[in-house]
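Students often ask why inverse folding is considered easier than folding. One informal answer: many sequences map to the same fold, so there is more than one right answer. In these notes we will look at a single instance of the problem. The structure comes first.
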C-alpha cells in the first residue's frame, strides 16, 4: 500500500508531539510520586518521634516505670490518647509483636507480619495497600525496643491528586494527537501537494506528455519543478528532432526506391523501344541479303530502314536529353525572350510538315516576355506542336494562342486530333507512355515528348497542363512567369 507523503509527514509530526507529551508526563508523574512519598514519609517519621516522646513522658509520670508492664496494663489507653494527639488510627504492639490496642488492622496479612518483623528489629517500615499505608516505627526506651507503633494512614488524597494529573496528561496526549494530525495536515498540505503534483508531472512525462507547468515557489521544490520542466522540454525537442530525422530518412528511402524502380522501368522501356526499330531494320537487311536482285524490296527497305533509323535517332536524342536533365544540374542559359518571336521561328520550321498533313494553323499571339533557355523552350514548343500534328485528323486544325494573366504568360496549343482518354491524362507525362503504341510508332513517337516537355518547363520555373481532351481534340497549356519588358 502506498502511503501519501502528506499522511507520512502529519504522522511524523503527531508522533513527535505525542512522544514529547509522553516523556513529559512520565517525568512529571514520577516527580509527583517521589514528592508525595517524601511528604508522607517525613510526616509519618515526625509522628513516630511524637509517639516515642509521648510514651517517654507518660512513663515518667507512672509509678511503675517498667515499659513492658505499662504497655500490658495501659497500652490500650495509651494508644487511644496517642490517636487523639496525632489524629491517625494507631495500633500498638509489644516487644514480642503482639497487639496491645483493640484495633487490629490487617493482622492476618502476611505482608504486615513481614513489615512488623522489620519494625521489631528497630527499623521503620511501612506497607501500602490500595489507598492505605500501614506505617510501623519502633517504640524505644533509650536504646531498648519496647514495642512497635503502627499508624494507619490514608493515601486517598495523594492518589486523587496523582490521578487528576495523570488524567490531564491523557487528555493533553489525545488532544496533541488529534491536533498534531490536523495541524500537520494543514501545515504540510501545500508542501505535500507540490510534491504530489511533481510526482504526477513525472508520471505524465513517462506517458509521453512533455508539456509541463512550472511551480511559482522559490524554494527547492520550485527549482526542482523548473528542472523537470527544462528536462521535459529537452526530451520533447530531442524526440521531435529524432522524429523529423526519421521522417526525412523515410522520405529519402521512399524517394530512392521510387527512383530505383523508375530507373529500372526506364531502362526496360529503353531496351524495348530500341529493339523494335532495330528488329525491323535487321529484318529488311536479312531480306536484302536473301533477295539482292529484288528492286522493289530494295526500294521498300530503303524507305523503311530510313524511317526506323530516323525514329531511332530521335529516340536516342530524347533519351539522352531526359537522362541529362535527370542526372546533371543542367546549365540553363536563361535569357529574356519575346515569346511570339520564338513561336514564329518554330512555326516556320514546321510549315512543311503542316502542309504535308494539310493542317490549318490559326494563331492568336499577344506580346509577352519570359525568361527562358532558348533550346529548352524550342524542345517544349516543337514537341507540343509535333504531337498536335502527329495525332491530328486529316485536314485538321491547330490553334496557337498566347496571353498574359497577372504576372504569368500562357501558351495554349490546341488541335482537332484524336484526343486522349480522360483516365490517361496523367499517364501521358510518364516516359515511354503511349496511348496507342502502334499509332505512336507509325508516326515516329516513343512516348518521350511529353515527359521532356514537363521536365524542361518545370526546370525553368513553369508548368504544363492538359487543358482539354476529348472528341474535339486536345489542348495543352504551358505557363511561365512573365518578365517586364524593360527588365533584362
Ligand atoms: P510520343 O513521342 O509518342 O508522341 P509523347 O510523350 O509526346 O510521346 O506523348 C505520349 C502519348 O500521349 C502519345 O503516345 C499519344 O498517345 C498521346 N498524345 C500526346 N499528345 C497528343 C495529342 N496532341 N493528341 C492526342 N494524343 C496525344
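Output (designed amino acids):
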Amino acid at each position: 500500500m502506498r502511503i501519501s507523503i502528506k499522511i507520512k509527514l502529519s504522522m511524523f509530526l503527531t508522533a513527535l508531539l505525542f512522544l514529547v507529551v509522553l516523556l513529559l508526563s512520565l517525568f512529571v508523574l514520577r516527580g509527583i510520586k517521589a514528592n508525595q512519598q517524601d511528604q508522607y514519609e517525613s510526616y509519618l517519621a515526625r509522628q513516630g518521634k511524637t509517639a516515642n516522646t509521648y510514651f517517654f513522658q507518660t512513663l515518667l509520670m507512672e509509678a511503675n516505670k517498667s515499659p513492658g508492664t505499662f504497655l500490658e496494663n495501659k497500652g490500650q489507653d495509651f494508644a487511644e490518647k496517642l490517636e487523639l494527639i496525632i489524629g491517625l488510627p494507631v495500633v500498638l504492639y509489644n516487644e514480642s509483636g503482639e497487639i496491645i490496642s483493640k484495633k487490629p488492622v490487617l493482622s492476618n496479612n502476611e505482608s504486615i507480619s513481614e513489615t512488623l518483623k522489620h519494625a521489631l528489629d528497630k527499623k521503620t517500615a511501612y506497607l501500602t495497600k490500595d489507598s492505605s499505608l500501614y506505617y510501623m516505627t519502633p517504640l524505644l526506651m533509650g536504646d531498648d525496643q519496647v514495642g512497635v507503633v503502627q499508624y494507619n494512614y490514608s493515601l486517598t488524597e495523594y492518589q486523587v491528586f496523582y490521578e487528576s494529573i495523570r488524567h490531564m496528561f491523557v487528555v493533553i496526549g489525545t488532544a496533541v494527537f488529534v491536533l498534531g494530525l490536523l495541524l500537520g495536515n494543514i501545515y504540510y498540505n501545500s508542501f505535500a501537494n507540490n510534491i504530489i503534483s511533481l510526482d504526477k508531472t513525472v508520471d505524465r512525462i513517462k506517458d509521453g506528455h512533455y508539456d509541463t507547468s512550472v511551480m511559482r515557489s522559490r524554494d527547492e521544490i520550485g527549482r526542482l519543478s523548473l528542472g523537470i520542466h527544462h528536462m521535459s522540454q529537452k526530451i520533447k525537442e530531442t524526440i521531435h528532432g529524432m522524429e523529423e530525422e526519421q521522417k526525412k530518412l523515410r522520405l529519402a528511402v521512399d524517394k530512392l526506391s521510387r527512383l530505383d524502380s523508375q530507373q529500372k522501368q526506364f531502362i526496360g522501356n529503353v531496351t524495348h523501344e530500341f529493339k523494335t526499330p532495330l528488329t525491323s531494320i535487321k529484318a529488311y537487311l536479312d531480306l536484302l541479303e536473301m533477295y539482292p536482285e529484288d528492286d522493289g524490296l530494295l526500294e521498300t527497305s530503303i524507305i523503311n530502314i530510313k524511317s526506323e533509323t530516323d525514329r531511332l535517332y530521335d529516340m536516342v536524342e530524347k533519351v539522352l536529353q531526359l537522362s541529362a536533365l535527370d542526372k546533371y544540374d543542367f546549365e540553363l542559359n536563361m535569357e529574356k525572350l519575346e515569346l511570339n518571336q520564338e513561336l514564329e521561328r518554330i512555326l516556320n520550321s514546321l510549315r512543311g510538315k503542316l502542309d504535308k498533313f494539310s493542317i490549318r494553323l490559326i494563331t492568336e499571339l499577344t506580346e509577352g516576355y519570359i525568361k527562358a533557355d532558348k533550346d529548352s523552350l524550342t524542345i517544349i514548343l516543337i514537341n507540343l506542336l509535333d504531337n498536335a500534328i502527329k495525332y491530328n485528323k486529316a485536314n485538321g486544325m491547330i490553334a496557337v494562342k498566347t496571353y498574359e494573366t497577372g504576372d504569368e504568360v500562357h501558351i495554349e496549343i490546341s488541335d482537332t486530333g484524336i484526343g486522349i482518354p480522360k483516365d490517361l491524362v496523367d499517364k501521358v507525362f510518364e516516359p515511354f507512355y503511349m496511348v496507342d503504341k502502334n499509332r505512336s510508332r507509325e508516326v515516329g513517337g516513343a512516348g518521350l515528348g511529353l515527359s521532356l516537355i514537363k521536365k524542361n518547363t518545370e526546370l525553368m520555373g513553369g508548368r504544363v497542363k492538359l487543358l482539354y481532351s476529348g472528341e474535339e481534340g486536345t489542348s495543352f497549356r504551358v505557363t511561365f512567369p512573365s518578365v517586364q519588358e524593360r527588365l533584362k
